[in-house]
């Protein structure tokens, strides 16, 4: 388009240069003519530019001959109705007894063909006044005070720039581009349609409201589409909505390019398409779209085409039904219906636009002399369904904007004429001259005007914008199968942020005649229990669903992240809720019961051995092996077996203190007894001379003193431990995050290892002494059995340390209980199994001579 306009502009400039060089003295002459659509004289003239056609046929520009004018195709009855609304408003004002009394308004209405280049020609033509051959504008005030127009933003940009040097105000009825709010670039521009900044905010809120996170954008090749898309992308920043693609419909529609856009729509997973385009390029685009069998598209229409009557035909519904968008607020014009009926070929036989209207409405030729190929009208034709909305004036929108724009100029001009000399707004408090009004003087009053029409207040802010109101329009099937534009909500830009959009969702009919909101997402919704993980190199709306890690939950759909459960809780199987953690300790379950049974069996066996020894206390084997120490050892072993029971069950403050203290004291007692016995054996068999009195130092009293003193040392250590930093129950949530392990903290690590170290020291000392006495004479050398018992004891507890450290949860207590039981069984069997064997099964060996190895062979 830019290349074409450049070539045409170059040709116009060359023509201008040629005419200028022929004779500077000659008066400028028109090189071409641009006939107005409608014209009426008056005291004050306003211009009107409307897209009475929506397509163009560009001439051949080869610079070898004068190019013909651009041919406009595709008559638009909707825009024709806008033009007639302007005429109606002017006639009402001219007959009004309250506005411009004793003055009349004139107008000059031209066709822009919905194209910037043709709009430029229309603007230049409207500047020439009522007659193009007579242009007094260089010597007096402009014959044109203001312009109503244009519809498309691209055309309005061109027209506004042409009018700016002459400071002629322009009020647009349909140009919503946000770019016009720049007063430095467009100082004379006003509009009665809301700024597109509000429309893009409304569309962004609509997309967020219905959770359409993956959408396509299609725009026209003009400023309106470009600025609207830029504004929408800005609004969508910080939301969950992403754009799948952006496509542009050529201003001069090209079918090949249109099919490429449709292929992108077909292949994309985005089922919602937002379109910022004018009716002109959308009409051929949608005609091609209907032939491509593309289904499932939910259209979101901009105000430029959401109420276009050309799309109300029944053939559009299967493809466009359910379209939703924001339309200009509707109004009501009392006499519009009657006035439109007066526009016919009989009333305007020489107006080609009226002839085209008749052909569009009825598909026939009303004027016999016309070169049209259509059949002559018989007078009995019915309106074609695609243009039946032409006479539907129940809810005019754009036409109502035209109506307001004309009245805005009339009220402004009326206020200008009421100005009293000496109290005016201009230099030295002057007023404008009634017979020589300049457009810039009228612009001042347009900026300040405020009036009511049909209960609505009309005014302009400092940027030339009006109050932002939109109706939410939904395309639904009518009774005749056509499309009806049903209002299902409202957008009020004057309300606080977040409260502007009001929609009656139950009244909406979506694409494909569905009552459920369409889904348009790049990735399927992530259910509770998972989170969204963005795919590398793709927009944030394209994601995979990743299950939450253990200990994390998400209880909402499409959670961005999973949240940690509190310390006392853990995630359930589905990762949707936090549940109380499983509490773990060595309970009376299968493992606890097994250890309990083993403990009781061990204690019972020890008591049984004790009973055997007591029953046979007078036999040689019991007496030789120091029966008192044996009973002490058996008593201590019973306590050792039973102390393992303290490790089973839920830890409490008392059980934690008893566990290690009872265990350490009982084992210390047991080892002290074995140590005493070892000393006695060693002393008895190492006496070198007869009558040597070594045993007098190891009598029963001394033996008890050794046991008591060795055990007392352990008691003192335990007492200091309990007083200083006693063991306490501890809820361990770090070792295994899914469980709460209730265990006993040792309190003082130093005391804990001192207790174990003391037992180890006793065992090592006992082992060394017994090892030294292992080869002493006698058939029953007690030192050998003590050596083996200590060897087993040390082996068990050396293996216990790494096993205890590496065991999780309740198994740590189980390992400690197992070590207690294993070492207790080791002592019991090593020290007493052989004795019980002799007592019960070999009584003949239970003699002093046999034990001392002195029996006769």
UniProtKB/TrEMBL annotation:
<keyword id="KW-0732">Signal</keyword>
<dbReference type="InterPro" id="IPR000337">
    <property type="entry name" value="GPCR_3"/>
</dbReference>
<dbReference type="GO" id="GO:0004930">
    <property type="term" value="F:G protein-coupled receptor activity"/>
</dbReference>
<feature type="transmembrane region" description="Helical">
    <location>
        <begin position="591"/>
        <end position="615"/>
    </location>
</feature>
<keyword id="KW-1003">Cell membrane</keyword>
<dbReference type="InterPro" id="IPR011500">
    <property type="entry name" value="GPCR_3_9-Cys_dom"/>
</dbReference>
<dbReference type="InterPro" id="IPR017978">
    <property type="entry name" value="GPCR_3_C"/>
</dbReference>
<feature type="transmembrane region" description="Helical">
    <location>
        <begin position="785"/>
        <end position="805"/>
    </location>
</feature>
<feature type="domain" description="G-protein coupled receptors family 3 profile">
    <location>
        <begin position="591"/>
        <end position="855"/>
    </location>
</feature>
<keyword id="KW-0325">Glycoprotein</keyword>
<feature type="transmembrane region" description="Helical">
    <location>
        <begin position="750"/>
        <end position="773"/>
    </location>
</feature>
<dbReference type="InterPro" id="IPR038550">
    <property type="entry name" value="GPCR_3_9-Cys_sf"/>
</dbReference>
<comment type="similarity">
    <text>Belongs to the G-protein coupled receptor 3 family.</text>
</comment>
<keyword id="KW-0812">Transmembrane</keyword>
<keyword id="KW-1133">Transmembrane helix</keyword>
<keyword id="KW-0297">G-protein coupled receptor</keyword>
<dbReference type="InterPro" id="IPR004073">
    <property type="entry name" value="GPCR_3_vmron_rcpt_2"/>
</dbReference>
<keyword id="KW-0807">Transducer</keyword>
<protein>
    <submittedName>
        <fullName>Extracellular calcium-sensing receptor-like</fullName>
    </submittedName>
</protein>
<dbReference type="Pfam" id="PF01094">
    <property type="entry name" value="ANF_receptor"/>
</dbReference>
<feature type="transmembrane region" description="Helical">
    <location>
        <begin position="817"/>
        <end position="840"/>
    </location>
</feature>
<feature type="signal peptide">
    <location>
        <begin position="1"/>
        <end position="29"/>
    </location>
</feature>
<keyword id="KW-0472">Membrane</keyword>
<dbReference type="Pfam" id="PF07562">
    <property type="entry name" value="NCD3G"/>
</dbReference>
<dbReference type="InterPro" id="IPR017979">
    <property type="entry name" value="GPCR_3_CS"/>
</dbReference>
<dbReference type="Pfam" id="PF00003">
    <property type="entry name" value="7tm_3"/>
</dbReference>
<dbReference type="InterPro" id="IPR028082">
    <property type="entry name" value="Peripla_BP_I"/>
</dbReference>
<feature type="transmembrane region" description="Helical">
    <location>
        <begin position="661"/>
        <end position="685"/>
    </location>
</feature>
<dbReference type="GO" id="GO:0005886">
    <property type="term" value="C:plasma membrane"/>
</dbReference>
<feature type="transmembrane region" description="Helical">
    <location>
        <begin position="705"/>
        <end position="723"/>
    </location>
</feature>
<dbReference type="InterPro" id="IPR001828">
    <property type="entry name" value="ANF_lig-bd_rcpt"/>
</dbReference>
<keyword id="KW-0675">Receptor</keyword>
<feature type="transmembrane region" description="Helical">
    <location>
        <begin position="627"/>
        <end position="649"/>
    </location>
</feature>
<dbReference type="InterPro" id="IPR000068">
    <property type="entry name" value="GPCR_3_Ca_sens_rcpt-rel"/>
</dbReference>
């Amino acid at each position: 388009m830019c290349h074409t306009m450049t070539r045409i502009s170059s040709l116009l400039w060359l023509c201008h240069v040629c005419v200028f060089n022929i004779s500077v003295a000659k008066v400028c002459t028109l090189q071409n003519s641009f006939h107005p659509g409608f014209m009426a004289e008056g005291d004050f003239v306003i211009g009107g530019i409307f897209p009475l056609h929506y397509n163009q046929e560009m001439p051949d520009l080869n610079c070898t001959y004068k190019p013909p004018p651009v041919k406009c195709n595709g008559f638009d009855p909707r825009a024709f109705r806008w033009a007639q609304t302007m005429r109606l408003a002017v006639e009402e004002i001219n007959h009004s007894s309250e506005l411009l009394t004793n003055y009349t308004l004139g107008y000059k209405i031209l066709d822009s063909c919905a194209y910037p280049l043709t709009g430029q020609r229309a603007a230049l033509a409207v500047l020439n006044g009522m007659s193009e051959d007579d242009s007094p504008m260089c010597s007096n005030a402009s014959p044109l005070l203001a312009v109503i127009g244009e519809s498309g933003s691209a055309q309005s940009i061109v027209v506004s720039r042409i009018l700016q040097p002459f400071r002629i105000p322009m009020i647009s009825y349909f140009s919503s581009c946000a770019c016009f709010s720049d007063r430095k670039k467009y100082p004379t521009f006003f509009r009665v349609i809301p700024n597109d900044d509000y429309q893009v905010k409304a569309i962004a809120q609509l997309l967020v409201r219905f959770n359409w996170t993956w959408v396509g954008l299609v725009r026209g090749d003009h400023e309106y589409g470009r600025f609207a898309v830029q504004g929408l992308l800005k609004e969508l920043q910080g939301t969950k909505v992403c754009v799948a693609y952006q496509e542009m419909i050529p201003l001069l529609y090209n079918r090949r390019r249109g099919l490429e856009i449709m292929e992108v729509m077909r292949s994309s997973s985005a089922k919602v398409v937002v379109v910022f385009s004018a009716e002109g390029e959308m009409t051929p685009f949608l005609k091609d779209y209907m032939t491509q069998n593309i289904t499932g598209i939910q259209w979101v229409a901009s105000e430029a085409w959401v109420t276009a009557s050309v799309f109300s035909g029944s053939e559009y519904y299967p493809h466009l039904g359910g379209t939703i968008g924001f339309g200009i607020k509707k109004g009501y014009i009392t006499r519009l219906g009657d006035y439109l009926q007066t526009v016919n070929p009989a009333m305007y036989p020489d107006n080609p636009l009226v002839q085209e209207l008749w052909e569009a409405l009825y598909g026939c030729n009303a004027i016999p002399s016309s070169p049209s190929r259509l059949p002559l009208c018989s007078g009995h034709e019915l309106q074609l369904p695609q243009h039946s909305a032409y006479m539907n004036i129940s809810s005019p929108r754009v036409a109502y904007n035209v109506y307001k724009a004309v009245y805005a100029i009339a009220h402004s001009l009326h206020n200008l004429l009421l100005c009293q000399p000496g109290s005016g707004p201009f230099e030295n408090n002057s007023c404008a001259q009634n017979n020589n009004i300049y457009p810039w003087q009228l612009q001042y009053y347009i900026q300040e005007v405020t009036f009511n029409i049909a209960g609505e207040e009309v005014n302009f802010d400092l940027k030339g914008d009006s109050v932002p109101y939109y109706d939410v329009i939904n395309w639904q099937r009518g009774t005749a199968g056509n499309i009806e534009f049903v209002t299902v909500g409202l957008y009020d830009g004057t309300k606080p942020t977040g409260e502007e959009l009001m929609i009656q969702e139950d009244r909406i009919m979506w694409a494909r005649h569905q009552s459920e909101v369409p889904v348009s997402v790049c990735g399927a919704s992530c259910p509770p229990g998972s989170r969204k993980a963005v795919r590398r190199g793709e927009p944030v709306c394209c994601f995979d669903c990743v299950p939450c890690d253990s200990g994390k939950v998400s209880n909402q759909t499409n959670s961005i992240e999973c949240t940690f459960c509190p310390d006392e809780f853990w995630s359930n199987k589905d990762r949707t809720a936090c549940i109380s953690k499983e509490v773990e300790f060595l309970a009376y379950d299968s493992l606890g019961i097994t250890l309990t049974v083993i403990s009781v069996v061990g204690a019972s066996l020890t008591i049984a051995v004790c009973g055997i020894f007591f029953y046979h206390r007078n036999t040689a084997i019991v007496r030789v092996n120091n029966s008192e120490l044996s009973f002490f050892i058996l008593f201590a072993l019973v306590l050792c077996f039973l102390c393992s029971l303290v490790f089973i069950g839920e830890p409490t403050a008392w059980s934690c203190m008893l566990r290690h203290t009872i265990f350490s004291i009982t084992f210390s007692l047991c080892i002290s007894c074995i140590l005493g016995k070892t000393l006695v054996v060693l002393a008895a068999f190492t006496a070198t001379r007869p009558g040597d009195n070594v045993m007098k130092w190891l009598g029963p009293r001394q033996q008890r003193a050794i046991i008591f003193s060795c055990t007392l040392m352990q008691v003192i250590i335990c007492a200091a431990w309990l007083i200083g930093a006693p063991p306490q129950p501890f809820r361990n949530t770090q070792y295994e995050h899914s469980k709460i392990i209730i265990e006993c903290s040792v309190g003082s690590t130093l005391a804990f290892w001192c207790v174990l170290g003391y037992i180890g020291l006793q065992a090592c000392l006992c082992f060394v002494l017994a090892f030294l006495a292992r080869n002493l004479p006698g058939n029953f050398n007690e030192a050998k059995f003590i050596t083996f018992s200590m060897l087993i004891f040390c082996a068990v507890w050396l293996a216990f340390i790494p096993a205890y450290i590496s065991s999780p949860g309740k198994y740590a207590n189980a390992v400690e209980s197992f070590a207690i039981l294993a070492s207790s069984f080791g002592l019991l069997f090593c020290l007493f199994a052989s004795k019980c064997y002799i007592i019960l099964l070999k009584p003949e060996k239970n003699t002093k001579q046999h034990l001392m190895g002195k029996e006769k062979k």
